[in-house]
Amino acid sequence: MARSPALSGDVLTPDDEATATVRHARWQDYFQLMKPRVMSLVVFTALTGLLAARTPIHPLLGAVAVFCIAVGAGASGALNMWYDADIDAKMRRTRGRPVPAGLVKGEEAATLGVVLSLLSVMLMGMAINWLAAGLLAFTIVFYAVVYTMWLKRWTAQNIVIGGLAGALPPAIGWAAATGHAPLNAWLMVLIIFLWTPPHFWALSLYISTDYAKAGVPMLPVVKGAKETRRQILLYSLVLIPICVAPVFTGLGGWLYLAVSGLGGLVFLTLAWRVFASTAGDAADPRPADRDLYEVGDAAAKRGKPVGDARHARNLFAFSILYLFALFAALLAEAVLGLPVLGLKMLELPL
Amino acid sequence: MSRKDIDPAAKARGGRNIALGLGLAAFVILVFVVTVVKLGGNVGPHF
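The joint structure predicted for all components is written out below.
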């Protein structure tokens, strides 16, 4: 157990007595360091990249590739939790994480992150190929060092640039299957890269007070809610055409066209509502952490003061659904062997 | 000594050790199986 004077042999102080009630760390706490929810999305997009390449790969090697990507993502999550423990302790959304909660020592989180990073990259290189391993190593370093240690505390563009780390798994998956990363792989990366800002800014609109308290220069904290709402709309206007683009590059089929087109219209509608709203102007209306994902009228019916923040919450929730649906459509088309729609005149030398 | 008499710290440490041991064993098995699969593609045609 971390921070336990009873174990370290120190004399108990009143503050120590409070922390001494913290339970002992279990293996599940170390698993939590790996951000399993983020890891699940990474696994899903990497698997989609691997299968969308439509290149035969031994099932076991495919599973090992996805496993390495998952472990690499978990490793960078552990490094993030180690370095950001001070920030996490100040925010309601993150103060229950193992390190700020006093369950796991920061050094243990860092060690776990470094060991898993090395293992995942080495295994990927030896079992799959070194292009995939190199991309995985780049992703880990970019997230743990460039984003966590540098961008996050320095610029309001933190999640724009840092979003590259979360966007790369499809390219790693594709590289694992084929040994190279063509334009279509990078198109999948671009989709996630452009999806990240409106997704996180919608969230930050209604928890901006937490970010301000923690000293994280998120866009609403630095530029204000109005500018954030404008940026959300601008990024959404760029995002949706890019989401439809795979239909023209020989990556997506009819199913993907329907999902990206219809879902894109809903996304733009929600982004416009956020733009036209006063979301983020008032203080965080959430009465508890568990209400983070509660959206729209559901919260109002339960008598909670959601205010205009509901538009931001709706966009945040739908953005997750939209990205999932896009990649699920690509995955389904690849698994079922459905034809892609790439227009002859627009076929690219992939 | 009954189960409830076990020191919670020792119990938690034991659980972590088992998880670590299982993880290491799984990793060794995984590397072995991957090696067999990758080499299998090369040696298969000779049989």
